[in-house]
Amino acid sequence: MAMSLLQSILSHLPGFATDVLRLCLWLVLLTALFAPLERWFAVREQKLDKRALAQDLGFYFLSSLTPALVMGFPLAMIAELGRALLPAGLLQASASLPLLPRLSLAFVVGEVGFYWGHRLSHEIPWLWRFHAVHHRPQQMYYLVNTRAHPVDLVLTRLFGLTPLYLFGLAGPGAAGMATPVAVILIGTVWGFFIHSNVRFRFRPLEWVLATPVFHHWHHSRVDHINRNYASTFPLLDRLFGTYYLPQAWPADYGVAEDARQEDAVGQPGVKAAKAVDAR
To answer: Which of 14, 34, 82, 86 would give a disulfide with 166, using CB separation of 3.0 to 4.6 Å?
Structure first.
């Protein structure tokens, strides 16, 4: 009954209003899931600043709505480029794959693209200026996942989705759209988890699956901010020499440049990272 009522309401709303309402419902579900987990299984006790929370809520909606508005045209052009340049047999083979193998291959290929998009956003100075927005929070919790500058978000998404459209793993139509939607949805949901303030460790799986401690070290203020770029598969960091995972949790989060600026005006600066109880 409740679902029928909700569907009826959504069917009478304009497209943009429907998207906003869906995001509100997702936010309620995410908060219902992560707020208790971050209270009961916290890495460290922390009190969120109200101003920072308001900013993160704004980024949540901005980051969720922006890609749909600006990425359709470039991805369509990339798909056309793939059809023009690549052998027809390769594209037909990709399109004819059963759904599960196609999704699995797309997820692996997309993850490689996301890895390099993420890594370049750290290594290229003008890209870092946009990506630094994501690293500025000095506390980790689930909404940090969507705290991103629109330019950074779109460029990273393009790195991840371009191979899918280029090689025929994604394209027009319901079947073609299912693949990138699934890749983005799974990656986003897992992103909320690895940014969250929870001390869960999956030690037997940590070498194959990104976990909160793996990604928390990526957000540390020390040099490890240039490690652990993978969003799902740490094997990529092992393969490309950017893997870092000690037993402890990082002591400080944020951007080192911000800490140096604080020091310059006499405010408390960055502390040397100390091992936090690994629990």
So the answer is: 82
d(CA 83, CA 76): 11
DSSP assignment letter at 273 = P
Instruction: Determine the Cα–Cα distance for residues 107 and 183; give it in Å rounded to an integer.
Output: 6
Q: HSE of 253 in the Cβ direction (CA atoms, 13 Å)?
A: 24
For residue range 174-207, what is the model confidence (pLDDT) as tens digits? 666 788 889 999 999 999 999 999 998 888 888 8
29-31-32-35 Cα dihedral, nearest 10 degrees:
160
pTM of the entire predicted model: 0.85
**Strand (E) positions, the chain?**
none
Residue 118: closest CA among 18, 201, 225, 220: 225
Q: For residue 39, what are its two tokens? A: 């209270």
Which DSSP symbol is given to 203?
Answer: G
Is it the case that residue 12 has pLDDT exceeding 60?
no
